[in-house]
Write a structure and sequence with these properties.
By secondary structure, the chain is mostly helical. Helices cover 79% and strands 0% of the residues. The protein is globular and about 50 Å long.
Length: 302
């Protein structure tokens, strides 16, 4: 079982949170194909985004140990499975590697990766700590995981233009809605550590209402932009957000975020069948690791 200790360095990157990023990357990539007719290989950027986001997630955990311990999650650092110095080395190595390789592919791609790092740093690290500021935390998360990742996918096939920025708006709104609902289960732990998210500031009722409205707007926008893959996935997830708002139950709030990721991932997988294999291996590999390492059943679909 000692070999599982080394897998801690992989799972501290939170691979279970990579599908939303990968999915939007692939959908941005696909959207650019429709407009430019160009089709470059996506594989290297797909891998590099893992290193960039994984490094940023580690930074987030370094500065979030106390609230993670109170919320009983992400215990790699808070429980000492990975040392702080090891986490720093891994995070900086991953981010440096991803940004440098992105610049090697193209200058524009490198600039987008560098911007992604800056957003992640502002969100997680002192003296900025956007994650502890309601509006700044919300905007930086939605901009980074929604707009920026979509634009990185677009940049693989075509240079960014006004159309790309416009077409990223539904994704910005969708990520905004998911982000808002993810703050709700952590309200008590965040409040105890003076971490003021919009969940803490506005409460479950108002946040779940706002997230439902954001999904609804994204549905109408995607329809007007003729982004039918996004439209149908958002339409399918919308009832889950309404249910979360009406019941205000934690399990339904969590299900709303999972449904949004699931439906978008299915759409991305239809365009890229190999992506289904990545998702399946990632899901069951993570479950096996957590079961063997910690005796937990994680992640779950419900």
């Amino acid at each position: 079982m000692s070999y599982l200790r080394y897998l801690d360095y992989l799972f501290i990157t939170r691979p279970v949170l990579m599908p939303p990023v990968w999915t939007i990357l692939l959908l941005g990539y696909q959207r650019a194909i429709f407009f430019s007719g160009e089709k470059e290989k996506v594989g290297w950027v797909f891998v590099l985004i893992f290193f960039l986001i994984g490094g940023i997630y580690i930074l987030n955990q370094i500065f979030d140990k106390k609230s993670d311990l109170l919320n009983k999650k992400l215990f790699f650092l808070s429980s000492g499975f990975v040392k702080d110095l090891e986490a720093w080395i891994e995070a900086t190595s991953f981010i440096f590697l991803s940004v440098c390789c992105a610049f090697f592919i193209s200058t524009n791609l490198g600039i987008l990766f560098l911007l992604g790092f800056f957003l992640g740093y502002l969100y997680s690290c002192p003296p900025f700590f956007f994650k502890n500021r309601p509006l700044l935390g919300f905007l930086s998360n939605a901009s980074g995981h929604g707009c920026l990742v979509f634009l990185i996918g677009w940049q693989i096939n075509s240079n960014i233009n006004f159309d790309a920025l416009l077409f990223s708006l539904p994704y910005f709104l969708a990520v905004s809605a998911v982000y808002l609902n993810t703050t709700l289960p952590d309200i008590e732990g965040d409040r105890k550590t003076s971490k003021i998210t919009l969940g803490v500031k506005l409460g479950v009722l108002r946040v779940s209402f706002i997230s439902s409205i954001l999904v609804l707007i994204s549905i109408f926008l995607s329809l007007s932009f003729k982004d039918y893959p996004f439209f149908f996935s958002a339409l399918l997830s919308f009832p889950f957000f309404i249910r979360a708002f009406l019941t205000k139950k934690e399990k339904n709030i969590i299900l709303s975020t999972k449904s949004a990721v699931l439906f978008l991932s299915i759409i991305a997988g239809i365009y890229h069948l190999w992506y289904f294999l990545v998702l399946i291996v990632g899901f069951f590999g993570t479950r096996l690791y957590y079961k063997k390492r910690f005796g937990m059943t994680y992640p779950t679909l419900t």
